Amino acid sequence: MFGIADDSVFSDFENNELHDPSPRKELDGRTVYVSRELRMLNWLDAPVLCDFGSAVFGDEEHSEDVQPDMYRSPEVILEIPWTYSADIWNVGCMIWNLYEGGSIFSGKDPEFQTYRSRAHLAEMIRLLGPQPPGLLERRKLTRRIFSAEGEQQSL
Predict the structure, then answer these.
(1) Domain Protein kinase, which positions (predicted)?
(2) Among 36, 78, 99, 112, which residue's CB has the most CB atoms within a 10 Å radius?
């Protein structure tokens, strides 16, 4: 996460919500809102370490779903037990974001027009090449996304 020196982005968000409320629905006694994009600033402040509620010990394997969508590592997407390698992937994505001014991956699925793991993996494969076979052998959902030869199935 990055600090924001100009907090006008939040007042803009609030004003937009007041004048053009986000769609919402009631579900099980609670209100669920459709996400609204924040206006992105041309610059960000220093990176901030956050979300220590999800912190885990590095050498132990974990399988819980972590990371914001666009920073998800292949292990997390593929539901493979992960360690500190997921954090290293995050640092790489963050460095790209800082130097290029945008995310290296969006994961936006052309069919659903929203984030989907299959679209995120397709972006990774286009940029980095096929997933290593050893990685695919460790994964639960491999058969739904990859053929027996390790080729990505069509979206």
Answers:
(1) 1-155
(2) 78
Beta-sheet strands, E only, within the chain? 24-27, 30-33, 108-109, 114-115
Domain limits, CATH 1.10.510.10, in the chain: 52-155
Which residue, among 123, 139, 135, has the nearest Cα to 79 in the 3D structure? 139
45 a catalytic residue: no
Domain 52-155 fold is: Transferase(Phosphotransferase); domain 1 (1.10.510)
Indicate which residue of 6, 12, 45, 65 is catalytic.
6
Cα separation, 128 vs 141, in Å, equals 20
4-36 pLDDT, tens digit per residue, is 777 788 888 899 999 999 889 998 889 888 887
Residue 99, sorted as left (phi over 0), alpha (psi -120 to 50) or beta, turns out to be alpha
Note whether 139 and 78 are within 8 A (CB): yes
Binned at pLDDT 50, 70 and 90, residue 58 comes out as low
